[in-house]
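Q: Protein A?
A:
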Amino acid sequence: MSVLVTSRPLDEYCGLFGLTRAELGAVPGPVLDCPGGAAGLVAEARTLGCRAIAADPGYAVPPRELAARARAGREVMAAAIAADPARHLPRHLRAERYLRSWDRARRLFAADAAAHPERYVAAALPQLPFADGTFALTLSSYLLFAYPDLFEPRQQLAALLELVRVTDPAGEVRIHPLHDGTGTRYPWLDELRAELGRRQVASEVRRYGRPTGHRVLVLRAADHRRRAARTGAGAPGLSAGREPRDPARTGPRRGDRPAR
């Protein structure tokens, strides 16, 4: 089994992760999309004033090649929608419109990655080349729980801990979905959350969207409440802390662990 390369647009990310464009634009620091695939998030979020970075092992190949893989992924999604639209198609969209949004996002990715390659970092979990606390918000979609045959529980734990490491303690990591491609829920979520708690990572499962909502795993370093209390309120939906460093800056900040 291989990971499907997708090209989801910004509005789909917002729906998946319970964000609005205004909230995303107000995030008080860089945003990480991991894995980024051929999504339009980085390019579109930058137009909102959001400093977004994507990480994905696929960025080791030229953008046009990855975009071609995403085109193949689009055809896989089109077939899945035709076979089971209730599972794969957002309720408020027709299939043609939804797939066109993927086409647009794929073109935005290819153009932005070619023009600004520094925004697209070739890296794979569980080792990311960013210093501790770099990002104010980290989003991870359709990977860790979507492909249980590729990620055993120990690998999932290591990946989640790495996402928390690179996220500011006052920020959040949001992961979706919590099920595989057949819709089967991840069976070891309670055990995984308990182990995260033992590693000083707070977790909760939130529901976003209507009518019943979909589940998103939200992670924070366990000391975030003390930091937030000292620094006051931040962007909508996020606690505030010190402004995380811009990943484009060079050199570690005092107290940072060396990037891996």
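Q: Protein B?
A:
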Amino acid sequence: MTDTLTIAGRSERMSRVRASDTKPEMIVRRMVLGMGYRYCLHDRHLRESPNLVFRSRRHVISVNSSPTQCRFD
């Protein structure tokens, strides 16, 4: 399948894709905080920098909200 956008158009569209604070991530964060759990955000020292890090429990949560991984053809 060929790309229908120009290089500038594709660059503009991809620049609007957010890496953090996406809607699915915010839903999970509100839910976890509402349950009373404390967490750290985007720990760069861990592999793939997970979204939520529970240091005292030694657990992580990664929210997959990438538009390229949620495609339906």
